[in-house]
Amino acid sequence: MSNRPLTMLCLASYEKGAEFMREAKRQGWRVYLVTSESIRDANWPRESLDDVFLMPDDNKKWRLNDVILGVSYLARTHRIDRIVALDDFDVEIAAALREHLRVPGMGETTGRYFRDKLAMRAKAREQGVPVPPFTPVFNNEVVNEYLAEVPGPWLVKPRSEASTIGIKRISSPDEARDILETLGDRRSYHLLEKFIPGDVYHVDSIVSEREVVFAAVSKYARPPIEVMHDGDVFATRIVEHDSDDERKLLEFNRRVLQAMGLVRGASHTEFIKAREDGTFYFLETSARVGGANIVELVEAATGVNLWAEWAKLECAEPPESYRPPPSRRDYAGLLISLARQQRPDTSAYDDPEVVWRLNKDFHAGLIVQSSSYDRVTHLLDDYLARFRADFFTRQPVPDRPTC
Length: 403
Fold this sequence. Notes:
Layout: E1 7-12, H1 18-26, E2 30-36, E3 51-55, H2 64-75, E4 82-85, H3 91-101, H4 108-113, H5 117-126, E5 134-136, H6 140-149, E6 154-158, E7 168-170, H7 173-182, E8 190-194, E9 198-208, E10 211-220, H8 224-231, E11 234-238, H9 244-260, E12 265-274, E13 280-284, H10 294-302, H11 306-315, E14 331-338, E15 354-357, E16 363-370, H12 373-390
Parallel strand pairs: 1-2, 1-4, 2-3
Antiparallel strand pairs: 5-8, 6-7, 6-8, 9-10, 9-12, 10-11, 11-14, 12-13, 14-16, 15-16
Helix pairs in contact: 1-11, 2-3
């Protein structure tokens, strides 16, 4: 058997995953990055990269055939042992590349469950995981029956976008039919779902050999769709350990990821707890770490860096030799806001529990950490009000996520 270094090909159409690439290099792998020409000068961990390959892009959208041809040409002179998608939008392309080059890892069929909101809902429902009432929108008769049977309001959701991009809330059947009509040929790439008011939670996981070996449960201060569309400071915090919410969500998360067929990797999965009756419903899952600095939130509370652990998992030879690290059971809260100032000054937020600050133009952000759930809750609530007064500003909802 050859003693050559193994090669990791990372796909990143957004600036993400620096710690993943650093850890893969620390594990002794060659690390190649495929990214967009428009972000060639981003703050990539170049000291950990053996080479960078650029794809032409239109708003970071890649054409699948261009990527397959480019990576296949690269494969003539570079053996590729693993292909990893560092962003949600790269999951399908990575799956297609693995299929084309016969590289181990998630293929297109499984990858669909982690990108297609219609596929993942149908699969979760098959496994007995509660989901909001939904319907595909291929057939007019089916849509009309759904609108007659399921009380509104409803959401029209793109099947393969990330975050809350492209979601429209509607309150009448006529409005629903009008929106579907305006979608034209893009209609079949959407679904219709009942809007359920409630609190949204996320579970951030590492999966090894189909088993969830690490998971952290958190709760958004406001549902992301409200933050994105109404405007507010983004905030989330680790839930109280051993609470009923934590126990239920850990079990639902395990069932969802097993149903979707994730063999190994990282995942960010969201659920909503209905305000009306306290029922948890599955919203969506992914085969990547959470965005918006959730990795830093989880690390502050547990000591576990999800990017680094994902890299260790991918680099493990054999794969079943991976072991998760010991983790703490502390608490942490995260706030991020668009800011009126180019370089917002958060120095007035000087409690000793502040352990991380965001360094990004026109953004303010920080993380608080404590062994006390009540202390984190108090600080987060206080800081939320102050962030709104000190920094918060709004901008139009983007066509694609910005982080």
